[in-house]
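Dear support,

I submitted the protein below through the web form. The confirmation email said the job was done, but the results page showed an empty box. After a refresh the structure appeared. I'm attaching both so you can tell me whether what I see now is the final result or a partial one.
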Amino acid sequence: MSKIVATDDVLGGAPRIDGRRIGVHHIAKRVIDADEPPEQVAADYDLDIADIHRALAYYYDHPDEMRTVQSQRRTIPDGLRVVRGPDDLDSHEEPEPEA
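What the results page shows now:
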C-alpha cells in the first residue's frame, strides 16, 4: 500500500500515489467521472485496490484542493495552443507569395 504525497517537481505538485506519477485526479476521473470499476483501474495502473480507495478518500477529504488541481489542469499555459487548421493560425502573419 502506498500513501498519497505531493511534491512540486512531480505532476506540478498535484497529490499522487507515492512512487508513481499517477495523480489522485487521474484515479478520480476514471472511477468517479467515467464510472469505471475501481478493480479495473487498479489493474490498469498495477496498484493495490487499497491504493485506489486511498486516492478516492483523499479526493473526497480535500475537495478545495482537488477543485484547484482540476482547474489548473484545464488551463493552457501561455505560449501553448493547439493548431488544428489554417483558421487557428495567427492572422497577422503575412501570406506566402504565390508562385
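Response: this is the final, complete result; the empty box was a page-load delay. Helices lie at 24-33, 38-45, 49-61, 63-74.
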